[in-house]
Amino acid sequence: MASAELTGININGTAWDMAGLSSYAATISDEYAGPPTVEYIYTATYDDATSETGKKHEIVATKNGTNYQTVSTIFTNNVTLNFTNVSNVLFSMTNPTAPTEELASKTSSNVTATFSPGGSATVYNGHGSSASQLVYNDQINLGGSGNSYFLANFTAAIAEGDIITSSNTTASTFKIGINSTAGNAKEVDFPYTVPSGSNLIGQKSVFVFKTGTSGTSATFNTFTITRPKTIDSQALGGVKEGETTLTETTDYTVSSNTITLTDAHKAIVAPTDIKLINRITYDDSSTDDKDVDVTLAKNGDFFEGTATIGATTYTVKVPVDTSTPLLSLSAATGTISLNSYTPTGTVKVTVTGANLANGTFNAPTADGVTVTPATVEITDGTLSQEFTITTTATTAASTDITFAYTGAESKTFTLAYSKTAKRSVAQTDVTSATTWDWKNAGSASIELKGEGVTDPQNGKEFILSDLPEITNDATFNSQALKVACQWPNRGENSYLQGNTIKFNVTVPGTVQVWFSNTSNRDDNAKNRRFLYVNGTNSDVYTLNQDFVNTEAIAVPAGEVVINAFTGEETPAATMVRVNKIIFTPTVTIGDAGYATYVAAEDVAVPEGVKAYFVTAADGGKATLEKVSDIPEGAAVILEGAKGTYALTATTATTDAASNLLKASTGLTADGTQYVLASKDGVTGFYKLANGETLPAGKAYLVVDGLAPQFIGFSFGEATGIAAVEANGAGILNDGLYNLQGQRVAQPRKGMYIVNGKKVIIK
What we know:
49% strand; 13-stranded antiparallel β-sheet
């Protein structure tokens, strides 16, 4: 290139007036967000006299003292731009006020106000009937129509990593977009960091919309867009003790990166409040002081620790006070509540000591309590020991337990304890329960057989296992049952008296409940109390305290809610007594006579049902092999009459290694999965379309390659058939299949397979 002639300058993508350029240099005092990017636009002339216009030389400004600078060296004379007042703030608004008029009176119009640095903001209210929803009381108010917005304009373009934030009074979430259509905006929580690929990158304006219920408003009184600063340097800015900044020489000295506090700050135990000040200097020459905690431990005559600031590691030393023995307690008081279920109670307290003579420390004694351990050996002059205080008191009392050491101030632990007539139950909210699942297979039940008196707060929900005096059968997980009731296991009786019982099941099944009224009642609609399961009336009611039971009520996998309502025309929630619940998992076979099932644990094949594995799938046929039981995790095809069948647990002996059926956990199909279905009277495996979902607990086949859309059945037990029956009458109830292994519900004339034999229907 023979020469380059400067023709224009862009700063952060915006053309700059070169009239300010003098002697190939200019000082620009406009504020930019972070180091400005400069494009020097020029015409290049080459040695062969050809030229090229619109060439660009891009430079990102770098620090020059407290300012920024770019220098382009491609011209005959270097072109230098100096930038002052560079900030990391693109836009900042604080406590807005109406600039020239009362904005609350503006409807279906916009009002513009100017904010720093060099930007402006527009508030637009697109809802003509909401005259008060713009700017008032020193805050922006967005409400009414989705067409209402706050628009911020600024000079520098948004970049990845910029942070948008707002202090607001009525919302934490807003929508941010690049145009005035709320539907195109993205819902964000402030502060919001602009990610890579965001459509905000390169924009010099943003639109802010409210979120939430229509007709409500969202207000905020600050709005800023900042670019994170770059750290130039970090250095020791001082030493703090708690919140007090210490004075060098008077309070501490620094030598070879070792900071030593004076004797005025000596300590008996390792201080936990010593901090170093990390003085951070950023690329805009601003500074920020950050506290750096120092962890100290005894080392000879000093408590020592280290802390790193920037690239320097400092050693901090605090003199040890070896003059006065010291004792301290982790707590000054404790309480123990006793009752007939917990006749012995304990509480713990930790005793620490420093500057003690090595030897034996004796635990205190007091009437009605035992303190263990009775003795502790002191080494290196320090003590840190947890003591257990035990009592079996029969009456309410308060005891002072004094820990003492010669020369140290004694410390007293006050223990209060009581003897209650009935047990106090620690209640837990249902939402915080950790275990929800009832047993997966085999009937599981609970029958309340508790003794004693309990009385949780009326109406509160808690976990049944918090009542250890309640017993239940071994198949029931008491941690799974949540109860909201007035008197669980009231008195000496065996029932829950209340209004809500909840539990979860992982498989479908049936629930049967034994319940009664809370007292004897006359027979009228108001006094009849009906049990509901998942919001459905069981049609069984009680009038008195004799327990009645519901039929087995079908429930899906998931939460089961049992409660009671009166029989009035407008039913009201009421209380009943429940003393027994049985859950039995089930599987349902539909009209086609087939279903798939995935065993949650080893189960027996229900009576009247056949279960099959698929052991091969090729040539458009799936080979079904009958199995005698179903092992845990195995997927099977069930064949039987339409109906719902109970499942019982067993110890399975079947080996599922040859089984090609897979268990769905909520599968999204990719076109290689086949599921059991019945179409036009023909049952078999049909290909799932891409993107279709197969619910959890169902079975499917995976067939790769150029597979057909339909795969029929081929029964392994029907091979080698030679006999032919001339008349097929009376065989329809035995299960009828065509020669391709497909079950046929409405046969016509022809040859079929029944129970492994070929038959002809004429």
